[in-house]
Write a structure and sequence with these properties.
- This protein is α/β, with parallel strands linked by helices.
- It is built from 21 helices and ten strands.
- The chain has two domains: 260 residues, no CATH class; 228 residues, no CATH class.
- The strands form three sheets. The protein has a four-stranded parallel β-sheet, sandwiched between helices. A three-stranded parallel β-sheet has the order 1-5-6, with helices on one face. It has a three-stranded antiparallel β-sheet with strand order 2-3-4.
- Helix 5 packs antiparallel against helix 7.
- The longest helix is centred in the last third of the chain and has 19 residues.
- It starts with 8 loop residues before the first helix and ends with a helix.
Length: 527
């Protein structure tokens, strides 16, 4: 889950924690008026949580009712996990812990998670039991407890001599001394207390999973901000290691993060999803679905638009209209990043006043209009067709898509039907051409004041001349002549060949990718 601070990510975890407490019956919402206030929005009569998933169940939890889940359905960690130094000097200094009931868990996601030293005691107890009560050799015990941690540390921090970490020993707190948890780093031996914050964060998480994951085998794990204190590369390595090697197979891992490394891992992993909480008003009901992974704006929570030039110094940055960036991003144009803006005019002004590039719809522009725009705004790319939908629903693109799905597609019949639909629509379109063109911002700046270029898009004879040319395009029955100014976004939508096909799928064809690559390639060459 991504989103700015305060956007509501941790509230999801509080909902999971509320369910968990109701299941275990050890945290009752009516125990405290403060707890009721903490969980409720003003005006609510009761706390209610609905949870729908692949298991196809829904749970509603009033204050007094135990949900039909089990004690191990949820296991969560708050973001306040780090223990700066070990403090216990003897075994049993902590409260008596029921690990099966997870009784030492924080009750709210704004509280500190103090499980670490309990985990140290549990692991050392398990090691001693195996040593005295089983027939396992020292080597077998090491493989069970020490090697998994060392393998994980190597995968996360790397094997370089300066960064490689290896756990040497875990000795419980005895004789008035804190636990001896020692590591080798390079040529030095280091106690846990002298680790960096990031190293402590990783070891804390690994030890916790080593001590408790066997108890939670059919579970939703929810960990808040486990990327704390880690650089981008380590963030990626950590989430990859935890997800692929430490979370049991029949489980889910939910995490909330602003981390570029986590976002990149989720983008690459087939089994991961990204849910965006940013800029949403949760005073109204919201249904959130996973973001398209080819959407470059998922990175904005980690890197704002204002930092794009510094981050992508060797790359072309194109601003595009609205959600069109979802389609451009699938093309995979080398060294190119697409960023959405609200509309055509915003993209135009961004290009005009900065070094950014931009892509806008052709709309009702003549060939001569486009030639002038290219000449005066070299960083602005104008589509060859009315809009991105003209590319997506182009007969060649639909032909490739249907062929790949093993479905029949008669391209000639589609063009015939398209031409008929155009002829039915043109009498509605042609009368508004000149008026629509007055909305266009091109040549509107003072440099073109009262000059012929500016009059191309004003209520003038220049505008009417170009509108007449566009009317000629629409009156033609030659496909490539009329199709370039036919608004496929809002017309011809009832054609059967357009039904039940996701535009995101049409953007993945080779034809579409070649068309977009050629468009941008020709712009870069100044053609």
């Amino acid at each position: 889950m991504i989103g700015s601070n305060g956007s509501g990510k941790s509230s999801v975890f509080d909902a999971f924690g509320f369910l968990d407490g109701a299941v275990k019956m050890d945290v009752r919402s009516h125990d405290s008026s403060w707890r009721s206030y903490y969980l409720k929005k003003p005006g609510d009569l009761a706390v209610s949580v609905q949870f729908d998933g692949d298991t196809e169940f829904t749970v509603t939890v009033p204050f007094f009712k135990k949900p039909a889940l089990n004690d191990t359905t949820f296991y969560g960690r708050t973001s306040f996990r780090q223990i700066p130094r070990l403090t216990r000097t003897s075994l049993g200094e902590g409260a008596n812990v029921d690990f099966q009931k997870d009784s030492d868990r924080p009750k709210f996601f704004i509280e500190r998670d103090n499980r670490f030293e309990n985990d140290v005691e549990k692991i050392t107890e398990e090691i001693l039991k195996d040593f005295f009560r089983s027939q396992q050799s020292n080597e077998q015990i090491r493989k069970k407890y020490i090697d998994p941690i060392n393998d994980a540390l190597n995968n996360i921090f790397g094997g370089g001599n300066g960064t490689k970490l290896q756990l040497i020993e875990i000795i419980p707190p005895l004789e008035g001394k804190v636990a001896q948890i020692s590591f080798r780093k390079g040529d030095s031996e280091i106690h846990y207390n002298y680790f960096s914050a990031g190293e402590k964060e990783v070891f804390n998480l690994l030890l916790n999973l080593l001590s408790r994951s066997s108890l939670y085998q059919d579970t939703i794990y929810f960990f808040d901000e486990i990327d704390l204190h880690l650089n981008t590369k380590l963030q990626f390595s950590l989430i990859k290691e935890i997800t692929e090697n430490w979370i049991p197979e029949n489980c889910q891992l939910w995490t909330a993060s602003h981390s570029l490394g986590f976002i990149e891992y989720a983008k690459q992993a087939d089994h991961a999803s990204i849910i965006d909480f940013d800029d949403l008003d949760f005073d109204s009901p919201r249904t959130l679905t996973p973001e398209p992974k080819d959407n470059p704006e998922i990175y904005e929570i980690a890197v704002g638009k204002e930092f794009l030039p510094a981050l992508f110094q060797q790359m072309s940055i194109y601003f595009v209209e609205n959600k069109d960036r979802d389609y451009y991003a699938t093309v995979g144009v080398p060294n190119t990043v697409f960023v959405s803006d609200n509309n055509r005019n915003n993209v135009y002004h961004k290009v005009r006043t900065t070094k950014y590039k931009g892509i806008v719809d052709r709309d009702f522009l003549s060939d001569a209009d486009i030639a002038e725009i290219k000449k005066h705004y070299p960083n602005l790319t104008v589509l060859n067709y009315y809009s991105i939908e003209n590319y997506l629903y182009h007969p060649e693109n639909l032909m490739e898509y249907n062929t790949s799905k093993g479905k029949p597609f008669d391209k000639d019949e589609y063009v015939t039907q398209l031409t008929e639909a155009k002829n039915q629509a043109k009498d509605k379109i042609i009368p508004i051409l000149a008026l629509k063109r007055t909305e266009y911002p091109y040549f509107g700046e003072p440099a073109y004041n009262e000059k012929p270029l500016q009059n191309r898009f004003k209520n003038s004879s220049k505008n009417e001349e170009q509108a007449a040319i566009l009317a000629g395009y629409l009156n033609s029955n030659d496909f490539e002549t009329y199709y370039k100014v036919l608004p496929m976004k809002s017309y011809c939508t009832q054609l059967p060949q357009r039904q039940n096909i996701a535009k995101s799928d049409l953007a993945k064809t080779s034809w579409f990718k070649v068309a977009m690559s050629q468009l941008l390639g020709s712009e870069d060459k100044g053609a």
